[in-house]
Amino acid sequence: MAINLTLALTFFSFVGSSAARVLLTLYALTLGAQPSTVGVLGGMFYLFPLLLSLPIGSLADRYGSRWLLMIGALCGASALLLPYFVHAIPAFYVAAALSGLALAFFHVTLQNLMGILSRPDEHARNFSNFSLVGATTNFVGPLVAGFSIDYAGHAVACLYLAALSLIAIVLLLVWGHLLPGGNRAAVGGTGTLKSLADREVLRMLATSGLVQLGTDLFQFYLPIYGYAKGLSASAIGAALAAFAGASFVVRLFLARLVKHVSPEKLLAWSFYAGAIGFLLVPFCRNALMLGAVAFIFGLGMGIGTPLTVILMFSHSTEGRSGQTLGLRLTANNFVRVVGPMLFGAVGSALGLPPVFWINALMMGSGGLMSHSRAKRSR
After folding, report:
1. What average pLDDT does the segment 296-302 reach?
2. Which of 73, 282, 322, 348 could form a disulfide with 112 if both were Cys (CB 3.0 to 4.6 A apart)?
3. Looking at residue 186, what is its pLDDT?
4. In the prediction, which pLDDT does 192 show?
5. Does the structure show a pLDDT above 60 at 354?
6. Closest alpha carbon to 165 in 16, 57, 1
């Protein structure tokens, strides 16, 4: 029952976060925001996850997850209520920061719950299920945001999406007691330093950051590109949903793939598919082409994130899994904060195509590094 509750909380919290990114981006664009402004807005989504993922992971180890998740749900609801009442760009920065704060509480806490609620032989299966729910939310979130905007307008869509956080609050109030508590004696001050001294952990942090950067920038700049081409919010949401649908399909086979192919080789092909997706986006002229490219991208990069989660959890010290996963999310969110701001400046200076082509080069380099590592491991 606790596993099912964790998956349900994952669905409602991540749908809200995914939809909020699309809604706030498109809403800001209608208010006249420039690519550089939207880039800063994108960075604000991940400011608090950057600063707080590691402390929240330690708190989850020590105090359990119920009330941390409750705080996250309250922040998520507040993030979407603010732009309903205040229609100004500064309010969007605050809303994005609150949405990021919610994500900080949700992400590390829910990942950690999946690990500690699973036996060692269930890790691949349960993390695969967790990633499938994540892929589903990436599919549902943009669609809900797009159709809500087209049906009711940007402001009222904020109210619709805020209701998702309220559902999470109800689940926690009714069944939150089923979630495991923490262990105050398990957390020490040297856990982070020990993790950073492990060369394999450092390598996985770098790989995970690159996977996250590619995935987020694709999802972040696809709406901007679609908007520039005159596509409707529903068409943009459908293209992002194609990415999520492909991620769902490939994650169905994650546990089976890990048994037959080394994780490093899987990561290499994940990066190669990501490079192809970035390379092709600037040549898309309609929603159908954009959706097809997003699907190709999702087939590759959709498997990268769960692979890095599994590998990081396997390298965690007993009783400090939340701290280790928090360290991973800290590294990921560093590139999430810096990436949109950096590439927002590139987009404003050079236009959107160079943003996609530079990312294609980065993904290709990641594939070569992972492929080389796979050969050495073999």
Report:
1. 89
2. 322
3. 56
4. 56
5. yes
6. 16
- The C-alpha atoms of residue 310 and residue 306 are separated, in whole angstroms, by 6
CA dihedral 272, 335, 129, 163 (to 10 degrees): -130
What is d(CA 122, CA 274) in angstroms, rounded to the nearest whole number? Answer: 29
**What is the three-state SS of the chain?**
CHHHHHHHHHHHHHHHHHHHHHHHHHHHHHCCCCHHHHHHHHHHCCHHHHHHHHHHHHHHHHHCCHHHHHHHHHHHHHHHHHHHHCCCHHHHHHHHHHHHHHHHHHHHHHHHHHHHCCCHHHHHHHHHHHHHHHHHHHHHHHHHHHHHHHHHCHHHHHHHHHHHHHHHHHHHHHHHHHCCCCCHHHCCCCHHHHHHHCHHHHHHHHHHHHHHHHHHHHHHHHHHHHHHCCCCHHHHHHHHHHHHHHHHHHHCCHHHHHHHCCHHHHHHHHHHHHHHHHHHHHHCCCHHHHHHHHHHHHHHHCCHHHHHHHHHHHCCCCCCHHHHHHHHHHHHHHHHHHHHHHHHHHHHHHCHHHHHHHHHHHHHHHHHHHHHHHHHHC
The owner of tokens 């969110």 is: 333
Report the alpha-carbon distance of residue 275 to residue 364 in Å, rounded: 5
Terminal-residue alpha carbon distance, the chain:
40
Residue 3: both structure tokens together: 């596993």
Please count the other Cβ atoms lying within 10 Å of the Cβ belonging to residue 375: 12
pTM of the predicted structure, to 2 decimals: 0.70
Q: Which of 327, 312, 300 is nearest to 60 (CA)?
A: 327
Q: What percent of the chain has a predicted confidence (pLDDT) above 90?
A: 19
Burial class (CB in 10 A: 0-12, 13-18, 19+), 73: buried
Class (C level, CATH) for 2-179+197-377: mainly alpha
> Token match 């996985």: residue?
204
